[in-house]
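Service request form, structural biology core

Requester: graduate student, group of Dr. S.
Request type: structure prediction, single chain
Budget code: on file
Notes: please return the result as structure tokens.

Sequence provided:
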Amino acid sequence: MKTLPQFLKKYFWDVDFSKLDKEIYGSFIIDRILEEGDEKAVRWMRDNFDIAQIKNVLFNSKNLSPKSANYWQLIFNLKREKILCLRKSFQKKQKPIWKY
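Core staff response, request fulfilled:
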């Protein structure tokens, strides 16, 4: 089991941190660090996951805020329309869910 370093625990408040295996839950870990991580967490992510895996999470994540997705799109020099949560159609589909 590939456990995570303790300094990342603050980003996984809602799950059992001791059971997070980077090999099994890699996409979840990357997603959370892209959204919540600080410089140290991002450095760890880039050292422990290949760039293709990070970009794949960025392309397909439904959990990233538009602000975070836009930031990472600029950092990785990616096409905006390839990132799911930045597509207009995705953003419009989400609005009816929160009518309350």
